[in-house]
OB-fold domain-containing protein (Halobacillus shinanisalinarum), 109 residues
Amino acid sequence: MGLTAKYCINCDHTLSTDKYYCPVCFSDRLEEKRLSGRGEIYSFTNIYAVPKPLADQAPYYIVLVDLEEGLRVTARYNGDHVEIGKKVELESIDRRAYYFRPIGARERD
Ligand SMILES: [Zn+2]
């Protein structure tokens, strides 16, 4: 389990989308790399009105996380206190949704 992204072997740029060439140097020498899964909260919102299948989970936080590698991802937040700039790490990926928790938080059972 983890986050991956393509990066350019030619110029070391990490791509934010799944392209077939580097948007910086136009090289097609791309490889997949594993990301650290760590970053900090850029912004967040609290979701109260949800579709029916998620009704038992509301309210919950959606956060924008700036990853150490320079990419920004949208994720769910598993933690009590949320604030901009808070250090977070990837906890899990479930049905293509990312779940982040504060760094140092204990594993959930
Ligand atoms: Zn490049």
Remarks:
- DSSP finds no helices and seven strands in the chain.
- The mean pLDDT is 92.
- The CA atoms of residues 41 and 105 lie 15 Å apart.
- The pocket of zinc ion is lined by residues 8, 10-11, 13, 22, 24-25, 27 (CB under 6 Å).
